[in-house]
């Protein structure tokens, strides 16, 4: 069995092409590093802004919970106030009727004293 020999021509056949290729690679790698800049400040700013949004959202959620709790407390207190007002109105009615009974009983007592003293 015979082994065939393939003739391979180099891709870059002249020293001028090699020099041109190397120069192009050097310029390309150098220009990328020259034009590349650090984005660290922007990353830090974005992270700070994200944290600020998170803080504001947490504060808003906390305030919403406090408001809901306060509204529930106010509703309970308003119900208690209505009960007190109803009880007050009933007590005022009771007072008026008891005053009337007292005045009537006082008159009867006064008449009893007068009639006793007349004997």
Task: Give me the secondary-structure topology.
Layout: H1 15-35, H2 40-117
Quick overview:
The protein is built from 2 helices and no strands. It has helices at 15-35, 40-117. The protein is rod-shaped and about 160 Å long.
What string gives the helices and strands in order? HH
Gyration radius, rounded: 51 Å
Arithmetic mean of pLDDT: 87
- Based on CA inertia axes, which overall geometry fits? rod-shaped
Q: Strand portion, in percent?
A: under 5%
Helix content: over 70%
Instruction: Briefly note the structural class of the backbone.
Output: mainly alpha
Descriptive overview:
The longest helix is centred in the middle third of the chain and has 78 residues. Helices cover 83% and strands 0% of the residues. The model has no long low-confidence stretch (mean pLDDT 87). With 119 residues, the protein is an all-alpha fold. The radius of gyration is 51 Å and the shape is rod-shaped. It is built from 2 helices and no strands.
Keywords, please?
mainly alpha; coiled coil; single chain; 2 helices; 119 residues; signal
């Amino acid at each position: 069995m015979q082994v065939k020999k393939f003739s391979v021509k180099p891709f870059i056949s002249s020293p001028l092409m090699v020099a041109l290729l190397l120069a192009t690679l050097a310029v390309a790698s150098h220009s990328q590093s020259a034009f590349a800049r650090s984005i660290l400040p922007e990353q830090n700013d974005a992270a700070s802004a994200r944290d600020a949004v998170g803080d504001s959202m947490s504060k808003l959620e906390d305030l919403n919970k406090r408001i809901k709790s306060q509204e529930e407390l106010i509703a309970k207190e308003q119900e208690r106030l209505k009960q007190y007002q109803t009880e007050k109105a009933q007590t005022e009615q009771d007072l008026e009727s008891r005053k009337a009974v007292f005045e009537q009983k006082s008159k009867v007592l006064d008449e009893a004293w007068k009639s006793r003293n007349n004997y």
